[in-house]
Design a protein that fits this description.
Structural class: alpha+beta
Strand content: 25-35%
């Protein structure tokens, strides 16, 4: 299965703001907000807030914005 990349916005408000945390995940399909909440439960517990948005991102952009040094160890959403 081809893997895709997604940016996830985690924050406190109903809308995105300047104190939000952005993460990159990989998956075989796009998660819904609820699925992303479950997939990132440990991160949300650590940082607080909830998932505000899930956005597709191409690999090139993801590699330029996020640390890929341990990508082979990342969990894959949808497997």
């Amino acid at each position: 299965m081809e893997q895709q990349y997604f940016e996830i916005c985690i924050g406190d408000g109903p809308e995105e703001g300047c104190n939000d945390i952005w993460m990159c995940i990989r998956g075989v399909r796009a998660p819904s907000i609820q699925e992303a909440e479950q997939f990132l439960a440990a991160d949300i517990a650590q940082f607080g807030g909830h998932v505000l948005g899930v956005y597709p991102i191409d690999r090139r952009t993801a590699e330029s914005c996020y640390d890929f040094s341990c990508e082979t160890q990342w969990p894959v959403f949808g497997l």
